[in-house]
């Protein structure tokens, strides 16, 4: 394991004035043999049973969308941690191979043991998250899984494959859990992702040689239409100039178009009381009629429609607003702990 960045400070120091940024503990590890970026908010660096004596009762774990870069959720987990009165750890785990590993660390672990045949694929990403939990989080700790976009599909699969997980709640934000290739954005992207994605590799390879400052300027230019853009999103987006990262991101996306077809209504029905769905009104990945249909199929479910006009990629400009909403939704659950 490679530890990078400032480690989390003691709880007393964490409870500083709200104006100060909440410090994060940042790690690059191998999980299922693939480079994985983990951001941990709170003083708890280790939640495994053998290493920690005073474990928290609950872990908030973020399952990202695609690109599955942990850095996109930096502001979100800090805001969520503060909204929870700094009582619970909030972690985000990148998708396997979506992060640019630090110097001295390869994208794939140099070992003769291959834990997963296709860790970068969609099914492999599910096993990657389950493996992370198994190795890093005590079974005694309850979980709140907060998933975004394709992370919602991954979360439902996690609950299906590992029913023993102590999931208190799963919050599914802008859930791409069905008919992705048939969505407005899917119709546009499927031919590119499934047939032409290799064409994108050459320009990315050439752009990777640009200085970091130039890359950041290109990202700012691409996001110029936004009134406000999270600075951490700009820094994180520079990772997209890495050929290894973009290859893994596009490969996973191509599988999403082919494999995310039918909604898993069985798993939803079995876990309905644990689930909160949050759909967008103008979301081209999961259009509003997907919301209408799931609302009709599960009238007793907690299925919400965004009334604030938030974009699918909310982490770019609405992380604090989303964190405040989730804190409010879960208030009753947390008071019962």
Automatic annotation (TrEMBL):
<dbReference type="GO" id="GO:0042632">
    <property type="term" value="P:cholesterol homeostasis"/>
</dbReference>
<dbReference type="InterPro" id="IPR019363">
    <property type="entry name" value="LDAH"/>
</dbReference>
<dbReference type="Pfam" id="PF10230">
    <property type="entry name" value="LIDHydrolase"/>
</dbReference>
<dbReference type="GO" id="GO:0019915">
    <property type="term" value="P:lipid storage"/>
</dbReference>
<keyword id="KW-0378">Hydrolase</keyword>
<dbReference type="GO" id="GO:0005811">
    <property type="term" value="C:lipid droplet"/>
</dbReference>
<protein>
    <recommendedName>
        <fullName>Lipid droplet-associated hydrolase</fullName>
        <ecNumber>3.1.1.13</ecNumber>
    </recommendedName>
</protein>
<dbReference type="InterPro" id="IPR029058">
    <property type="entry name" value="AB_hydrolase_fold"/>
</dbReference>
<keyword id="KW-0256">Endoplasmic reticulum</keyword>
<dbReference type="GO" id="GO:0160077">
    <property type="term" value="P:lipid droplet fusion"/>
</dbReference>
<dbReference type="GO" id="GO:0004771">
    <property type="term" value="F:sterol ester esterase activity"/>
</dbReference>
<comment type="similarity">
    <text>Belongs to the AB hydrolase superfamily. LDAH family.</text>
</comment>
<keyword id="KW-0551">Lipid droplet</keyword>
<dbReference type="GO" id="GO:0005783">
    <property type="term" value="C:endoplasmic reticulum"/>
</dbReference>
<dbReference type="GO" id="GO:0035356">
    <property type="term" value="P:intracellular triglyceride homeostasis"/>
</dbReference>
